[in-house]
Every structure is written in structure tokens, then in C-alpha cells.
Amino acid sequence: MEMNHYNDPSIIDGCTVPERVSSRSRIAPSTVTAGGISFGPDGIVIIAGPCAVESREQLLVTAEAVKRSGGMMLRGGAFKPRTSPYKFQGLGEEGIRLLEEAREKTGLPIVTEVMDTRQVEFVSQHADMLQVGSRNMQNYTLLKEVGMQKKPVLLKRGMMATIEEFLMAAEYILNQGNEQVVLCERGIRTFETTTRNTLDISAVPVLKNLCHLPVIVDPSHGTGHRWMVPSMAKAAIAAGADGLILEVHHKPEEALCDGHQSIDPDELTGLMSDIRKIALAVGRYIVEPKTKA
Q1: Residue 70 in domain
Q2: Which of left, alpha, beta for 28 (phi over 0: left; psi -120 to 50: alpha)?
Q3: Domain for residue 198, yes or no?
């Protein structure tokens, strides 16, 4: 096979960075648009919603709370990868239909996870953004499949992945022609046991130095404790993150998935107020929610 210049990685600060994602391949940082919401160097995007779609009532109540607080996109898992095969795995296609209903009622674009290549085409037809979760960051067949779609992709860092491996995973997507990729730092596994993962805040400036893609942070999975989410969310914005993805549940104590790390609507409202102040202090602004037509 004939080599082209994209096969030649660049070395930036000692890290091997593949050509398509490299900051040296673009004059300015990229902007990624999902459902009319832009991730980029100026505005800050807040994605919020339940870890898993559990019921119509749960999703619609939470979606309305996200919209009311100023969130811009709705997250919710219809297909859920769980460590235990006996735990709630999501509602599948029914969950996708409920997400569509929530989008219709609130105007919020939706982002949801794909776990398998067989799901990609179906989810692409309904969601505004495809999420590749941490467990699938190095599922290269799946990365190629979402790379062939025209939908933007939210790529989460694997729990054991180095920055270089993370960027190589993103390169798989871009290499298929889809340059609409947002990176998400969601915590890595270390020797520390007091938190679910160790949220690598330093990954934000590192990634933004090495590549041109937008970078957001997931403080929910990054800490595993709802009481830690606000402080880590604010730290991420101060560090330069282009957005956050937050787990929000109208009744966290009753959640079928990750209730211990989900904040409630009142906590989201308070956090949004603080985030606006921090955004202003660092010369950024909060992207406004879409107005439902």
C-alpha cells in the first residue's frame, strides 16, 4: 500500500501524535457540531442526563430539569455495558425511542452510546451524537464503523489508556473520514481506591496541546461520588475543558445505574450557576440550549 503523509506521526513534547489529530495539522482548534450545538475553543457545552434510560417518566422529568437548568444536550444510555452481566443493561431500542421523545419535548439534542457495530446504523438514524464508551475505546472495528458515519462521535478515554493510545483511537475514526470527534476524559484506573477512578485533570491541557479536537470531562465516572462532582466539574472548566458530561437523575437513590455518582436537578442548577462564573473568569461562555421550534 502506498504511504501518504498521514502515516507519519509527529512528536510533540515527547508524545507520538498521529497526523490527523495532531495540533500541527490545523491552524486553529476544530469545532464539532452535534444537533446544532457547537463544541469548540470559545463556548462550553454542558451535556447532562441519566446514566441509563430506565423509564419514560424518569427520562422526561430529568430531561426537563436539564433544559431548565441550562444544559445543552441530553445524555442517556439505551445500551449499557455493565461489569456484571446480571445488572440492568438498558432498554435497548425502546430507550432510543424514549430519547427521541425527550428531544421532541425539550429540543435538546441527544447523545447515547453504541457498543457494537451492529447497533451503529440504527443509533445513527436516531441520535445526534454517538458515544464510544471507555470499555470500547480500543474496539478498533467499532471505531472504524463510527468513523464511516456522518454523525459526530464522543470518544471516552479508556480506563487504562495512555494519552497516546487515546489519540490513536481517535485517529481510527478520523482515518475513516469522520472528523467530527470530541474527546472525553473520564478518569483512569490507578492504585487509589477512595474514588471510582482518578480523574486526570492534567489530560485537558495535555490533549489541547497535542491535538486540535475539542476536549470535555466526565466528573461523574471520574470520581464515582456525587459529592465530588461539582468540585471536579469546576476544576475541569478552570483547566480549559470545552464542556462537561454529567450524570443527573431526578431520584438518584432509586437509579438502576450509577445513582451514587448522579447529582439531582437542584444540584445541577447550583452547579450551572458556579460554572458560568468560572467560564467568565477564564474568558469563556456557556453555550445556550437550543430553542425548541
Answers
A1: yes
A2: beta
A3: yes
Cell of 53: 434510560
Asked if residue 3 has pLDDT above 70, the reply is: no
Q: How far apart are CA 95 and CA 110, in angstroms?
A: 12
Q: Does 100 reside within a domain?
A: yes
Tell me whether residue 247 is in a domain: yes
The answer to whether the pTM exceeds 0.85 is yes
| pLDDT tens figures, 66-103 | 999 999 999 999 988 777 887 877 789 999 999 999 99
d(CA 188, CA 112): 21
Give the chain's mean pLDDT.
Answer: 93
Cβ neighbours of residue 85 closer than 8 Å, sequence gap 6 or more: none
Where in the sequence is the domain holding 207, given as residue range(s)?
5-22+42-286
CA pair distance 40, 43, nearest whole angstrom: 6
The residues, any chain, with a CB within 8 Å of residue 110's CB and separated by 6 or more, are 35, 73, 74, 75, 76, 99, 100, 102, 103, 126, 127, 128, 129
Q: Residue 183 carries which DSSP code? A: E
Q: Give the pLDDT of residue 2.
A: 41
Could you tell me where the DSSP H helices lie in the chain? 56-69, 93-106, 117-126, 140-147, 163-174, 203-210, 219-223, 229-238, 265-281
pLDDT for 48? 98
Mean pLDDT of 253-267: 93
> What's the pLDDT at 258?
87
For the chain, the domain total comes to 1
Here the CATH number for the domain that contains residue 15 is: 3.20.20.70
